[in-house]
Amino acid sequence: MRTRPKAAAAAPVDTATERVYRGIYHAVVERRLAPGEWLREEELAAAFGVSRTVVRQALQRLAQDQVVALQHHRGARVAEPTLAEAAHVFEARRVVECEIAKRLGGRLTPAQLAELRALVQAEANADARGDTAEAVRASGEFHRAMARMHGNPVFVRLLDALIPTTSLLMARFKVGGGPVCVAHRHAEMVDALARDGPAAGAEMRRHLLELERSLTRPAAAVARSGATLRDLFAAYREPPDPDG
Protein backbone atom coordinates (compact mmCIF):
# COMPACT_ATOMS: atom_id res chain seq x y z
CA MET A 1 0.00 0.00 0.00
CA ARG A 2 1.42 3.34 -1.06
CA THR A 3 1.04 6.57 0.87
CA ARG A 4 -1.46 8.95 -0.62
CA PRO A 5 -0.17 11.97 -2.53
CA LYS A 6 0.24 15.04 -0.41
CA ALA A 7 -3.01 16.96 -0.35
CA ALA A 8 -2.81 20.53 -1.53
CA ALA A 9 -3.97 22.66 1.40
CA ALA A 10 -5.58 25.96 0.58
CA ALA A 11 -3.64 28.82 2.12
CA PRO A 12 -5.72 30.81 4.62
CA VAL A 13 -6.83 34.24 3.45
CA ASP A 14 -4.52 36.72 5.16
CA THR A 15 -7.22 38.91 6.66
CA ALA A 16 -6.67 40.93 9.80
CA THR A 17 -8.83 38.45 11.73
CA GLU A 18 -6.77 35.53 10.41
CA ARG A 19 -3.53 37.24 11.47
CA VAL A 20 -4.81 37.77 15.01
CA TYR A 21 -6.11 34.20 15.16
CA ARG A 22 -2.79 32.72 13.97
CA GLY A 23 -0.75 34.93 16.26
CA ILE A 24 -2.62 33.91 19.41
CA TYR A 25 -2.94 30.26 18.31
CA HIS A 26 0.82 29.90 17.80
CA ALA A 27 1.64 31.82 20.99
CA VAL A 28 -0.50 29.35 22.93
CA VAL A 29 0.95 26.28 21.19
CA GLU A 30 4.51 27.52 21.73
CA ARG A 31 3.77 28.41 25.38
CA ARG A 32 4.50 32.09 24.93
CA LEU A 33 1.06 32.64 26.47
CA ALA A 34 0.34 30.75 29.68
CA PRO A 35 -2.86 28.89 30.66
CA GLY A 36 -5.25 31.33 32.31
CA GLU A 37 -3.47 34.45 31.01
CA TRP A 38 -5.86 37.33 30.34
CA LEU A 39 -6.27 38.47 26.72
CA ARG A 40 -7.74 41.95 26.83
CA GLU A 41 -9.20 43.29 23.61
CA GLU A 42 -7.73 46.77 23.94
CA GLU A 43 -4.17 45.47 24.51
CA LEU A 44 -4.45 42.94 21.69
CA ALA A 45 -5.83 45.57 19.28
CA ALA A 46 -2.82 47.78 20.00
CA ALA A 47 -0.40 44.84 19.76
CA PHE A 48 -1.68 43.72 16.34
CA GLY A 49 -2.52 47.18 15.03
CA VAL A 50 -6.16 46.28 14.37
CA SER A 51 -9.59 47.25 15.67
CA ARG A 52 -11.20 45.71 18.72
CA THR A 53 -13.87 44.29 16.42
CA VAL A 54 -11.22 42.29 14.58
CA VAL A 55 -9.77 41.06 17.88
CA ARG A 56 -13.24 40.05 19.08
CA GLN A 57 -13.84 38.03 15.90
CA ALA A 58 -10.51 36.22 16.30
CA LEU A 59 -11.18 35.47 19.97
CA GLN A 60 -14.58 34.01 19.10
CA ARG A 61 -12.91 31.64 16.63
CA LEU A 62 -10.28 30.69 19.20
CA ALA A 63 -13.02 30.03 21.75
CA GLN A 64 -14.77 27.71 19.29
CA ASP A 65 -11.45 25.83 18.98
CA GLN A 66 -11.13 25.74 22.81
CA VAL A 67 -7.85 27.67 22.70
CA VAL A 68 -9.29 30.52 24.76
CA ALA A 69 -12.27 30.84 27.12
CA LEU A 70 -14.58 33.86 26.84
CA GLN A 71 -15.89 35.25 30.11
CA HIS A 72 -18.99 37.45 30.08
CA HIS A 73 -18.14 41.12 30.72
CA ARG A 74 -14.57 40.17 31.65
CA GLY A 75 -12.88 39.37 28.34
CA ALA A 76 -10.95 36.27 27.36
CA ARG A 77 -8.37 34.04 28.98
CA VAL A 78 -6.11 31.36 27.58
CA ALA A 79 -7.87 28.04 28.18
CA GLU A 80 -7.04 25.99 31.28
CA PRO A 81 -7.78 22.34 30.40
CA THR A 82 -8.11 19.89 33.28
CA LEU A 83 -6.55 16.49 33.89
CA ALA A 84 -9.96 14.95 33.19
CA GLU A 85 -9.84 16.54 29.73
CA ALA A 86 -6.34 15.14 29.21
CA ALA A 87 -7.71 11.60 29.14
CA HIS A 88 -10.05 12.53 26.28
CA VAL A 89 -7.38 14.44 24.37
CA PHE A 90 -4.84 11.63 24.48
CA GLU A 91 -7.42 8.97 23.67
CA ALA A 92 -8.30 10.95 20.54
CA ARG A 93 -4.64 11.42 19.64
CA ARG A 94 -3.95 7.69 20.00
CA VAL A 95 -6.88 6.81 17.75
CA VAL A 96 -5.74 9.23 15.05
CA GLU A 97 -1.95 9.14 15.29
CA CYS A 98 -1.42 5.42 15.86
CA GLU A 99 -3.43 4.75 12.72
CA ILE A 100 -1.41 7.34 10.80
CA ALA A 101 1.86 5.78 11.99
CA LYS A 102 0.73 2.24 11.09
CA ARG A 103 -0.21 3.33 7.58
CA LEU A 104 3.03 5.26 7.03
CA GLY A 105 5.40 2.65 8.53
CA GLY A 106 7.69 1.16 5.89
CA ARG A 107 6.14 3.29 3.12
CA LEU A 108 7.74 6.72 3.48
CA THR A 109 10.16 7.93 0.84
CA PRO A 110 13.76 8.83 1.73
CA ALA A 111 12.84 12.49 1.29
CA GLN A 112 9.93 12.20 3.74
CA LEU A 113 12.09 10.44 6.32
CA ALA A 114 14.73 13.14 5.87
CA GLU A 115 12.08 15.85 6.47
CA LEU A 116 11.04 14.18 9.73
CA ARG A 117 14.66 13.77 10.85
CA ALA A 118 15.27 17.47 10.13
CA LEU A 119 12.36 18.39 12.41
CA VAL A 120 13.75 16.11 15.13
CA GLN A 121 17.12 17.83 14.83
CA ALA A 122 15.54 21.29 14.92
CA GLU A 123 13.68 20.30 18.08
CA ALA A 124 16.85 18.94 19.72
CA ASN A 125 18.85 22.05 18.78
CA ALA A 126 16.18 24.38 20.18
CA ASP A 127 15.95 22.37 23.39
CA ALA A 128 19.75 22.45 23.80
CA ARG A 129 19.85 26.25 23.60
CA GLY A 130 16.83 26.63 25.91
CA ASP A 131 14.46 27.93 23.23
CA THR A 132 11.26 26.35 24.54
CA ALA A 133 8.96 28.06 22.04
CA GLU A 134 10.95 26.77 19.06
CA ALA A 135 11.29 23.28 20.55
CA VAL A 136 7.53 23.09 21.10
CA ARG A 137 6.85 24.43 17.60
CA ALA A 138 9.14 21.81 16.00
CA SER A 139 7.57 19.08 18.13
CA GLY A 140 4.06 19.96 17.01
CA GLU A 141 5.19 20.27 13.41
CA PHE A 142 6.68 16.76 13.59
CA HIS A 143 3.27 15.32 14.44
CA ARG A 144 1.51 17.50 11.85
CA ALA A 145 4.01 16.47 9.18
CA MET A 146 3.16 12.82 9.69
CA ALA A 147 -0.55 13.60 9.29
CA ARG A 148 0.20 15.65 6.17
CA MET A 149 2.30 12.82 4.69
CA HIS A 150 -0.62 10.45 5.16
CA GLY A 151 -2.55 12.65 2.74
CA ASN A 152 -5.86 12.99 4.61
CA PRO A 153 -6.45 16.69 5.39
CA VAL A 154 -9.06 15.76 8.02
CA PHE A 155 -6.29 14.21 10.14
CA VAL A 156 -4.33 17.47 9.91
CA ARG A 157 -7.36 19.46 11.05
CA LEU A 158 -7.94 17.08 13.95
CA LEU A 159 -4.35 17.52 15.13
CA ASP A 160 -4.61 21.30 14.72
CA ALA A 161 -7.49 21.11 17.21
CA LEU A 162 -5.73 18.74 19.63
CA ILE A 163 -2.19 20.17 19.69
CA PRO A 164 -3.01 23.50 21.47
CA THR A 165 -4.85 21.67 24.26
CA THR A 166 -1.94 19.23 24.57
CA SER A 167 0.49 22.12 24.89
CA LEU A 168 -1.66 23.77 27.56
CA LEU A 169 -1.94 20.51 29.48
CA MET A 170 1.83 20.13 29.43
CA ALA A 171 2.26 23.69 30.65
CA ARG A 172 -0.19 23.09 33.52
CA PHE A 173 0.58 19.56 34.63
CA LYS A 174 3.97 18.36 33.37
CA VAL A 175 6.32 18.43 36.35
CA GLY A 176 9.58 20.15 35.55
CA GLY A 177 8.07 22.18 32.72
CA GLY A 178 9.93 20.25 30.02
CA PRO A 179 9.02 20.26 26.34
CA VAL A 180 5.77 18.71 25.09
CA CYS A 181 7.73 15.86 23.50
CA VAL A 182 11.34 14.75 23.79
CA ALA A 183 13.44 14.84 20.63
CA HIS A 184 15.01 11.42 21.13
CA ARG A 185 11.51 9.88 21.30
CA HIS A 186 10.79 11.42 17.94
CA ALA A 187 14.07 10.00 16.62
CA GLU A 188 12.91 6.55 17.74
CA MET A 189 9.60 7.23 16.00
CA VAL A 190 11.36 7.92 12.71
CA ASP A 191 13.41 4.72 13.07
CA ALA A 192 10.17 2.77 13.57
CA LEU A 193 8.56 4.47 10.57
CA ALA A 194 11.52 3.37 8.46
CA ARG A 195 10.85 -0.29 9.45
CA ASP A 196 7.18 -1.22 9.18
CA GLY A 197 3.62 -0.32 10.13
CA PRO A 198 3.25 -2.42 13.32
CA ALA A 199 6.51 -1.04 14.73
CA ALA A 200 5.50 2.54 13.92
CA GLY A 201 2.02 2.16 15.42
CA ALA A 202 3.42 0.60 18.60
CA GLU A 203 6.05 3.35 18.95
CA MET A 204 3.44 6.10 18.54
CA ARG A 205 1.22 4.48 21.16
CA ARG A 206 4.17 4.23 23.57
CA HIS A 207 5.12 7.85 22.90
CA LEU A 208 1.60 9.22 23.51
CA LEU A 209 1.09 7.09 26.63
CA GLU A 210 4.39 8.38 28.02
CA LEU A 211 3.28 11.96 27.42
CA GLU A 212 -0.07 11.39 29.13
CA ARG A 213 1.58 9.72 32.14
CA SER A 214 3.92 12.69 32.54
CA LEU A 215 0.92 14.80 33.59
CA THR A 216 0.89 14.25 37.31
CA ARG A 217 0.25 17.45 39.23
CA PRO A 218 0.05 21.19 38.61
CA ALA A 219 3.38 22.52 37.41
CA ALA A 220 4.75 25.69 38.94
CA ALA A 221 3.51 28.74 37.09
CA VAL A 222 6.16 30.37 34.94
CA ALA A 223 5.72 34.06 34.29
CA ARG A 224 6.20 35.22 30.73
CA SER A 225 9.54 37.00 30.32
CA GLY A 226 9.21 40.78 30.21
CA ALA A 227 8.04 40.83 26.57
CA THR A 228 4.93 42.95 26.06
CA LEU A 229 2.04 41.78 23.89
CA ARG A 230 3.24 44.27 21.29
CA ASP A 231 6.63 42.49 21.22
CA LEU A 232 5.01 39.06 21.30
CA PHE A 233 2.88 39.67 18.22
CA ALA A 234 5.22 41.96 16.26
CA ALA A 235 5.55 39.43 13.44
CA TYR A 236 1.77 39.47 12.93
CA ARG A 237 1.36 43.25 12.87
CA GLU A 238 0.70 44.67 9.43
CA PRO A 239 3.36 47.23 8.49
CA PRO A 240 2.13 50.79 8.01
CA ASP A 241 1.18 51.81 4.49
CA PRO A 242 4.09 53.94 3.16
CA ASP A 243 1.61 55.87 0.96
CA GLY A 244 -0.94 56.39 3.66
Pick out its properties.
244 residues; mainly alpha; Arc Repressor Mutant, subunit A; Four Helix Bundle (Hemerythrin (Met), subunit A); 2 domains; three-stranded antiparallel sheet; 10 helices; disordered N terminus
Summarize it.
This protein has 244 residues and is mostly helical. Helices cover 61% and strands 4% of the residues.
Plain-language structure description:
With 244 residues, the protein is mainly α. It has two domains: 16-80 and 221-236, Arc Repressor Mutant, subunit A (Orthogonal Bundle), CATH 1.10.10; 83-213, GntR ligand-binding domain-like (Four Helix Bundle (Hemerythrin (Met), subunit A), Up-down Bundle), CATH 1.20.120.530. It has helices at residues 16-29, 41-48, 52-64, 83-104, 110-128, 132-150, 153-173, 183-195, 197-213, 229-232; strands at residues 38-39, 68-71, 75-78. It has a three-stranded antiparallel sheet with strand order 1-3-2. Strand 2 (68-71) and strand 3 form a beta hairpin. Helix 4 (83-104) packs across helix 7 and helix 6 packs antiparallel against helix 7 (153-173).
Q: Secondary-structure blueprint of this entry?
A:
Blueprint: H1 16-29, E1 38-39, H2 41-48, H3 52-64, E2 68-71, E3 75-78, H4 83-104, H5 110-128, H6 132-150, H7 153-173, H8 183-195, H9 197-213, H10 229-232
Antiparallel strand pairs: 1-3, 2-3
Helix pairs in contact: 1-3, 1-7, 2-3, 4-6, 4-7, 4-9, 5-6, 5-8, 6-7, 8-9
